[in-house]
Write a structure and sequence with these properties.
- It is a single chain.
- With 316 residues, this protein is α/β, with parallel strands linked by helices.
- It has a domain of 218 residues: Rossmann fold.
- The protein is 35% helix and 17% strand.
- Strand 4, helix 3 and strand 5 form a beta-alpha-beta unit.
- Helix 3 packs parallel to helix 4.
- The longest helix has 22 residues.
- Keywords: Carbohydrate metabolism, Isomerase, NADP.
């Protein structure tokens, strides 16, 4: 990313947003970074050490335009949305996620800014075949959260064709890492299992732990998100590790790094819809932007546990 004067991060006090803000601050100390967040699912503690401006704002309302009217935004990272996949209020989800995104695109048009926005691997739905998921495969969103992200992808493409504004989606898979603790029960399964084991409990997972996910470490996610601003045009990129790993493997690695020997406690899955397998095809982002993940599950869990156990400091 070339130097930009003014960067806006929506949802910048959340998990991915705060990690992104602190990395950008390190990379571009002369740039002005403005964070907007309604703090509905964020925590100010995530921004310890942030030197920019933070404003409370619901980007799905006209409040957005008043908050930034004195700033010429060059680059927008749009991460603000309802990310709780258990929310069933369809009107609320669509208003916050889709209407909020449309406001961001209008702001980008007004200021001629580039937009990088958070999409989601959930748009692919419950894939039966165990193959890496390509960006152009058929989409089958199974809940209102996934549907809202699917519609955002459609809107970005249409808006770009009409206005010339570049809007790049980053389709996150299962992200884990520092600054997610505030999410509580919606934090990553890796963090949830770590907490159970720290409390001396057997880690609980659905039978029989062989469900596989593409777990991607937050540092790789931040790097890919920043690189996405260099995309040649409006498009969507998968952001994962490119590997599908089981929950049994996660528990084994947590045991190894904690020095414990907990056996999993298996129980029946209570959900009608549950993704058994996710794996990102990372070919497109590698070929177009040169992004290659630096963290496999072994390296990511080791660093994360070391941070949680205060063996090392959080660094970028």
């Amino acid at each position: 990313m070339d130097k930009v004067n003014n960067i806006l991060i929506t949802g910048g006090a959340g998990f991915i947003g705060s990690n992104l803000a602190l990395k950008l601050q390190q990379m571009y100390p002369e740039s002005k970074i403005l964070i907007l967040d309604d703090f509905s699912s964020a925590n100010f503690k995530n921004l310890k050490g942030f030197k920019g401006e933070v404003l409370a704002c619901d980007v799905s309302t006209d409040e957005l335009f008043y908050k930034v009217e004195e700033t010429k935004i060059d680059l927008i990272f749009h991460l603000a949305s309802i990310t709780d996949t258990t929310v069933t209020d369809q009107e609320l989800m669509m208003r916050k996620n889709v209407d909020g995104f449309k406001n961001i695109l209008e702001l980008a048009y007004d200021t001629e800014a580039v937009v990088v926005y958070a999409s989601s691997a959930s748009v692919y739905g419950n894939v039966k075949e165990h193959i890496p998921l390509k960006e152009d495969r058929e989409k089958s969103p199974e809940n209102i959260y996934a549907f809202s992200k699917y519609i955002m992808d459609n809107i970005a493409k249409d808006f770009s064709e009409r206005t010339g504004i570049k809007a790049v989606g980053v389709r996150y898979f299962n992200v884990y890492g520092p600054r997610e603790a505030h999410k509580g029960k919606f934090a990553s399964m890796i963090y949830q299992l770590y907490l159970q084991m720290k409390q001396g409990k057997r880690p609980r997972i659905f039978k029989w732990g062989e469900q596989k996910r593409d777990f991607v470490y937050i540092k790789d996610v931040v790097e890919a998100t920043i690189l996405a601003s260099k995309a040649p045009g409006t498009t969507v990129y998968n952001v994962g590790s490119g590997q599908a790993r089981s929950f049994n493997e996660v528990i084994a690695l947590l045991n190894k790094n904690l020095g414990t020997d907990f056996e999993p406690e298996y129980f029946d899955c209570p959900y009608d819809f549950y993704q058994e397998y996710t794996q990102a095809d990372m070919t497109k982002i590698k070929e177009e932007l040169g992004f290659v993940p630096k963290y496999d599950l072994e390296k990511g869990i080791k660093e994360y546990v070391d941070i949680l156990e205060n063996r090392i400091e959080e660094t970028f």
